[in-house]
Design goal:
Blueprint lengths: L4 H7 L5 E13 L3 E7 L7 E6 L17 E10 L7 E12 L14 H6 L8 H23 L3 E2 L5 E2 L11 E2 L26 E3 L4 H11 L1 E9 L12 E10 L3 H22 L1 H10 L4 H10 L3 E4 H9 L17 H11 L4 E7 L15 E9 L3 E8 L4 H10 L8 H8 L5 E7 H9 L20
Helix pairs in contact: 3-5, 3-6, 5-7
The structure holds 4-amino-1,4-dioxobutan-2-aminium adenosine-5'-monophosphate (4AD) and magnesium ion.
The site of magnesium ion has 2 residues, from β15.
Length: 461
Amino acid sequence: MDKLIKEILSSSNAGVDVKVSGWVRTRRESKEFSFLEINDGSTLSGLQVIAPTTLPNYTDDVARITTGSSVTVEGKLVESPGKGQRYEVQATKISIHGLAPKDYPLQKKRHSFEFLREIAHLRPRTNSIGAVARVRSSLSNAVHSFFTQNGFVYVHTPIITTSDCEGAGSMFRVSTLDPDNPPRKEDGAVDYTKDFFGRQASLTVSGQLEGEAYALALSRIYTFGPTFRAENSNTARHLAEFWMIEPEMAFCRLMQNMDVAEEFVRYLAQYALEHNGEDLQFFNDRIDKSVIATLENIKAQPFERLSYSEAVKILKSNDSKFQYPVSWGADLQSEHERFLTEEVFSKPVIVYDYPKEIKAFYMRLNDDNETVGAMDLLVPRIGELIGGSEREERHEVLSSRMRQSGLNEEEYRWYLDLRRFGSTPHAGFGLGFERLLLLVTGMQNIREVIPFPRFPGNAQF
Ligand code: 4AD
Ligand code: MG
């Protein structure tokens, strides 16, 4: 394959012959030349091409090149006298693959992110969405390298499942029954025994339960895959389809779980600063002036840790600043979470030991009988980035918690088995990958950091 622009800029010297392909961002004409700005997505900065009017196909082809057209250019790489780039290409040959007519939606001007979302098939050709895609890919690598370095096994948990991990009932149903005419039982209810899986199935809200089975065999595992939630949350931080990273560790308690979460987030911040400098600088200049400082801050100092009860005390003494009231027993709202991490501590905060009533059935009951060993990691601008816990490893306690939560024990028999056969303390957490990308890119809306976002009322493309 021919070299990418990124490879040419990093490894070639002035004077060499090059061949570049990409999409034209702009073409300007002077008396003797056309100046083309070409971008191939490999790097933020494109390459400027000087196309002399003496090219044999100048009038027929080059003069017709429009914004959005795809081209291949051959020529010599030379030092650029102009500002803003080190090299440019003196073209000796230009061929056009596809022209883009005047109605190409990405003409050179600022477009709103709302508009770009409607052309999600073209938006990766913009600077910002292209940069998001590169950072997203780079941080996926970071996730795998962090866990591989620390002895974790990557496990692929199922997408289609019959368990509701978070017990929130916000699952998308998976069925092949005819919705207009489903088979029915005598009492009129839909007969799911006739469905594809012989019972009701859904898209997973979390790979954790299955992940626990593998952690209780391989000691340290992680998952990294798509996750689905049918909650009707029309916010800038929720998607109906998002990617989650879920490590699970046997022989691990809540405090060590926090250590891993903290080390992981610090590693990711460091990785982005080291590997994605050009794109981060762009985000810092154009999207959010605090992006790099936030990452440097994450890298530099330990996170704050405080119990839910301590957090509630702090929040109560600032009650007048909030829309939602604060009281012990109520879940923290995003305004409360952001107040803690942005105003009170100015760094990431881990809140732990939440009231059992507001957390999932699998979290380990504390000795006070009121709270569970849960932990949420909160970061500036976003709020909750990570949710995790120590898991209930005591068979009796777990099965009674399941009964209280109204779960069918028979269906979770396999999960209870893990507590019957060689149970151990274990813990883990889930990090929302798109929320991490909000943190690293400074983008305001989560719909900008996943290629084709799914949210209430939208599954286009
Ligand atoms: O806090 P959650 O619901 O925790 C779990 O699912 C656990 N089973 C994880 C575990 O312990 N293995 O979700 C974990 C994280 C959240 O902190 C958030 O970052 C992200 O997943 N998340 C979402 N991201 C985008 N859109 C949504 N609708 C999200 N719901 C959760
Ligand atoms: Mg949570």
